[in-house]
């Protein structure tokens, strides 16, 4: 599942108790953490992560509730969290022995000092973590959240915090502007993919335009008669009226052709949305379609292989889709 906390999705670290050695904002950088030995700044070795100072006054009592550092992340896409990754890459002698994660659902855009006093729910109980390790942890709650709070005991460094889940869009925005049924920020997600050798298919559903080839989906070169494809669980049941297939940045490796199909339900029959159509390299293609059939899933086939920056499926949400979105918004089920 996609990382709902990514900076590139609009995530932000809004406050932390301490960040003397390395900024808490590094927690949500999309790229993996890097390390360059013997690179020292004014406060010591430079780390690509969040690192707090050593706690000294009064020593360290394991059960002392004050012996903790915290960072609060506003999710770029509010939603249901299925798992977190507390990544301590490169932190060996300075990682926190134990961590916990809480989450909250906050209305509007309050300042950081108000979010601190939110109604926090523990989604990851305090538990040990290993140094220089990804540390993936499942989350059982199916509530919808807008913020997460990482607590490290008593101090130390964490390279990245990944918050994997599915977005839940606010239904009040359904009738204000075009609605992309395939947008990750609206709750769409990749459900299957034939190949992702060079780039994740989640990139297809990211907001905004790709800024490089590395921000798209790219497959390895096929040496057979088949083709590559990706399947998408849409944000809600809807009717698609505009398809956008963007091959920006893909010059010598764009697909020659692509097609899009849809179906209503996992057991439904696939029907054609966009017939097999030639594509140009480094081009934002937009196609109007006239298929008045509701769908909950889409499949894009590229022929035979290659890379694509974005896939957009603009349309309207059906009444059943609206009811589902309202239920997910109110109850957080996903």
From TrEMBL:
GO terms for biological process: allantoin catabolic process; purine nucleobase metabolic process. SUPFAM superfamilies: Galactose-binding domain-like. It catalyses: allantoate + H2O = (S)-ureidoglycolate + urea. Its EC number is 3.5.3.4. Keywords: Hydrolase, Purine metabolism. It comes from the Bacteria. GO terms for molecular function: allantoicase activity. InterPro entries: Allantoicase, Allantoicase_dom, Galactose-bd-like_sf. The keyword Repeat does not apply. Pathway: Nitrogen metabolism; (S)-allantoin degradation; (S)-ureidoglycolate from allantoate (aminidohydrolase route): step 1/1. Belongs to the allantoicase family. This is Probable allantoicase. It comes from Williamsia herbipolensis. The lineage of its organism: Bacteria, Bacillati, Actinomycetota, Actinomycetes, Mycobacteriales. The gene is alc.
């Amino acid at each position: 599942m996609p990382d709902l906390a990514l900076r590139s999705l609009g995530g932000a670290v809004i406050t932390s108790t301490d960040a003397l050695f390395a900024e808490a904002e590094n927690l949500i950088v999309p790229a993996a953490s890097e390390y360059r030995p013997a690179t020292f700044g004014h406060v010591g070795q430079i780390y690509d992560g969040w690192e707090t100072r050593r706690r000294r006054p009064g020593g360290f009592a394991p059960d002392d509730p004050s012996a903790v550092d915290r960072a609060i992340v506003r999710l770029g896409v509010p939603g249901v969290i299925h798992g977190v990754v507390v990544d301590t890459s490169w932190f060996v002698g300075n990682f926190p022995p134990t961590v916990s994660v809480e989450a909250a659902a906050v209305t509007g855009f309050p300042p950081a000092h108000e979010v601190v006093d939110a109604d926090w729910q523990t989604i990851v109980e305090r538990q040990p973590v290993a140094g220089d390790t990804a540390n993936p942890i499942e989350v059982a709650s199916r509530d919808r959240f807008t913020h997460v709070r990482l607590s490290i005991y008593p101090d130390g460094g964490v390279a990245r915090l990944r918050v994997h889940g599915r977005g839940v869009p606010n239904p009040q925005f359904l009738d204000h502007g075009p609605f992309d049924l395939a947008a990750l920020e609206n709750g769409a997600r990749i459900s299957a993919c034939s190949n992702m050798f060079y780039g994740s298919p989640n990139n297809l559903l990211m907001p905004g335009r790709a800024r490089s080839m590395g921000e798209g989906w790219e497959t390895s070169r096929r040496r057979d008669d088949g083709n590559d494809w990706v399947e998408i669980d849409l944000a809600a049941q809807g009717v698609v009226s505009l398809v956008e297939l963007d091959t920006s940045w893909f010059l010598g490796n764009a697909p020659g052709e692509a097609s899009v199909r849809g179906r209503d339900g996992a057991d439904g029959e696939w029907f054609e949305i966009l017939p097999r159509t030639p594509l140009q390299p480094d081009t934002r293609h937009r196609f109007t379609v006239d298929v008045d059939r509701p769908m909950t899933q889409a499949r894009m086939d590229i022929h035979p292989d290659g890379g694509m920056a974005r896939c957009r499926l603009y349309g309207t949400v059906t009444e059943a889709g609206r009811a589902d979105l309202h239920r997910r918004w109110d109850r957080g089920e996903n």
